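As described in the Methods, two query proteins were run sequentially through the folding procedure within a single session, without resetting any intermediate state between them. The first query and its resulting structure tokens are shown here.
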Amino acid sequence: MHHHITFIVLLLLGVVNLTAQNKPSTGENQTYQSGEKLTYSLKYGFIKGGYISFTVKDTLWEGTHTQELKLFAKTSGMVDAIFKVRDTYISYIDPTSDQPLKSVRDIREGRYKYYNEVTYDYTTLHDDSITIHSKKSGNVRVPPTIHDIVSAFYYARRYKFNDAMKVGDILEFTTYFSDEIFPLKIKYMGNERISTASEIESVIFFIP
């Protein structure tokens, strides 16, 4: 199976703005809510490379209240002229469990293009697995705690990113990525303060 894991995906779990984190572990989700938008600029020295935006909005999927979590990545300037990137990842999640119901991956990187949709059927739970349906490969049995790459990020924000983390801690997630089960591991590197266009922000750093 071809893995096309770009720097865009790795940056997805690379830095988190602490000002967006309230980090409750139970009850109503106050960590992220509909209307939130986070935008990160990508720079290489003085060269602007592009940006990544994360958005959250309430929506309906098959008549059910869900949250749409969207990641959009775009190169710009000189980088765009050399290697154009237009990546979109969308996850529709159950707002009570934070588990994905549907995932969309639309990748355009240079000449490479990839599109797939995956739906998750939790009513098929049996022998510690559920059935998901991929438009590319059909039905697949996966662990019931499966995430897509975007829902894993928001799940970590709500339940994993907290004051109990220690530098060097490794967070592990089972994800369905590039049409196969993909074990995602990220290492907590500590908190830092960085300058933004408007103020100094506290952020959490990870490496994949």
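Immediately afterward, the second query was submitted; its sequence and tokens are:
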Amino acid sequence: MHIEIGIISPEKLAYAGVAATALLGAHTMGLLKSPTAWLRTALAAFFFSLLMQAWHLPVGPSELHLVGAMPVYLLFGFIPTLFGFGLGLLVQALVFEPQDLTHLAINFLSLAVPLLTVHHTLGKKMQGISVANVLKLDAVYYAGVTLMVGFWLSISNDAAPVADWALFAASYVSLVAIEPLLTIALVALVGHLRGSRWLAACIDEGLLRRAAPAALSAAA
């Protein structure tokens, strides 16, 4: 979901920076009022960065990554994941790819806007964690990421934005198919470890309530 450096004008990058700052600012109080959210944000950033660095592949003017968005969201919660994305992208840019600092805002928004959509349409309403629910979350989230990449390409100076977006979308399908397996495995593990004090500090309370060992059934 990284966008190639140089294809988006500085003016549009500035607008993206304002939007990203406003989005984080609107959720800052939710982070500050909960000390456990700070720990979960650090954990979210760590696992997100680990997965991003574990596998990435350039595809046209963008790049495929193993994001791990839904495992991170379900394990650590909405606000830690939101800030974890920002922190993880910042650390990766500083340590591995300094040139990515230019596109920090648009790369963040590519992940954050779909996360907002998932959280407010499906995540808040989800009563239990089942295989069907995990598949729905992943489908909506990665459809959103794909659309965000298409949006950035549409306002860029890329010579063939539609063709490049189609290539990215087609390439993403195989990668997205892997993530539900990771999500299901991690949530099932948390369900079996319920009752641990250290786990209660690290994992989102909502997941701990819903992640009983029998929760991951094939039914919705």
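The first helix runs from residue 10 to 26. We note this only descriptively and draw no conclusion about the first query from it.
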